[in-house]
Amino acid sequence: MADSPQRVHRPLSPHLQIYRPLFTMVMSIVHRITGVGLYFGTAILVWWLLAAATSPSAFETFRSVAGSPIGLLVLFGYTWALLHHALGGVRHFIWDFIHGFGPKERVLLAQASLAASVALTVILWVVGLAVKG
């Protein structure tokens, strides 16, 4: 029998150490993270609705927590996550129609969804705070 060459030990699948992170890869990861954030952030909406349906004191407790600096930061983050995830869904919807698969188009769509989510979040909060007084 012939001697077989020694087996080379290499990873079974590519790893993050092999790939350099691309902008579209990072945006895909952020899309998944915002989805998880929205899952847990829905508890805030449930708390708001339950507080509004229960009693004025329960609603005032919610308002005091949500109106605190940390509460406002969480709500701002939830707003951005909601808009970013929705715009990521629009990007995937565009892909469903077999458009935007070129290298430049993929990056442009990812950059546009990030820029639009930040801009829309800021606009929404500025308008909301202006209406609030």
From TrEMBL:
A GO BP entry: tricarboxylic acid cycle
Record localization: Membrane
Required cofactor names: heme
Key words of the record: Heme, Iron, Membrane, Metal-binding, Transmembrane, Transmembrane helix
Cofactor binding note: The heme is bound between the two transmembrane subunits.
Chain ranges passing through the membrane: 29-50, 70-87, 108-131
Location (main, coarse): membrane
Cellular compartments per GO CC: membrane
InterPro entries: SQR/QFR_C/D (IPR034804), Succ_DH_cytb556 (IPR014314), SuccDH_FuR_B_TM-su (IPR000701)
Amino-acid positions noted as binding heme in the UniProt annotation, renumbered to this chain: 85
A GO molecular function held by the record: electron transfer activity
Pfam families the record matches: Sdh_cyt
Keyword Lipid metabolism: no
Membrane found in the keyword field: yes
Similarity remark: Belongs to the cytochrome b560 family.
The protein's assembly and partners: Part of an enzyme complex containing four subunits: a flavoprotein, an iron-sulfur protein, plus two membrane-anchoring proteins, SdhC and SdhD. The complex can form homotrimers.
Functional summary from the UniProt entry: Membrane-anchoring subunit of succinate dehydrogenase (SDH).
NCBIfam families: succ_dehyd_cytB (TIGR02970)
Protein name per UniProt: Succinate dehydrogenase cytochrome b556 subunit
Lineage: Bacteria, Pseudomonadati, Pseudomonadota, Alphaproteobacteria, Hyphomicrobiales
